[in-house]
Amino acid sequence: MQLIQQSPDIHAYLASDEAIDHWNPVVQETADTLWAASGDVYSYAKAAFEFVRDTIPHSGDSGDPRVAWRASDVLTTRNGICYAKSHALVALLRAQGIPGALCYQRLADDDGTNPVVHGLVALRPPGAVRWSRLDPRGNKPGVDARFDLDRERLAFPVRPELGETDYPELYAAPHPAALKALQESADRAQLWRNLPTAL
Question: What is the domain class of 4-194 according to CATH?
Fold first, then answer.
């Protein structure tokens, strides 16, 4: 699949906004700590991915009822669903000058019912000729997402026969449907009802 930049300007994928608030001190401190332990762009990107994947539980796995949506809040509360965790990873990437994008899949149950939009991240390290997609949602039995810039190792490869799809667009800011679901949900139970089923 060819990934399509929503914005032709690569600098759009370094910008800060209310969800990707990478100038927030919490994001900056986390990024600085990860950078000090890594020392180069590739190692930092891998460390940031693994930090978000492994130290911030997906609230669907942990049962945490809180809904975080700003990157800084996700890092502070150590909580979030796929969209929120993607916001945190993109903020950490951008904090160290690595273009990061938000991208999405449409997934479903094994019988094709209950479709839902799932959030991913794409990054394009300086000097790279293409974007690479990553899934920081968090591993669990049956889910084994990995950091790999050459071959996708996503949590959920799509099954077109069930109506699942990869959306090719790379967004510089969260998709409005995903952001609205997060912002308008008082708790995770309400969020589950508000999740978009398609983009």
Answer: alpha beta
Question: Following CA atoms 180, 181, 185, 189 in sequence, which dihedral angle do they give, to the nearest 10 degrees?
Answer: 180
Q: Which residues pair with 58 in a beta bridge?
A: 80
List the chain domain ranges.
4-194
Residue 118: in which H helix or E strand, if any? strand 116-123
In the predicted model, what is the mean pLDDT of residues 94-111?
Answer: 97
Residue 127 binned pLDDT confidence (cut-offs 50, 70, 90) = confident
Residue 176, token pair as written in the block: 């409005």
> Which single residue is written with the structure tokens 């949506």?
69
pLDDT exceeds 90 at position 188: yes
Q: Which of 95, 87, 56 is nearest to 70 (CA)?
A: 87
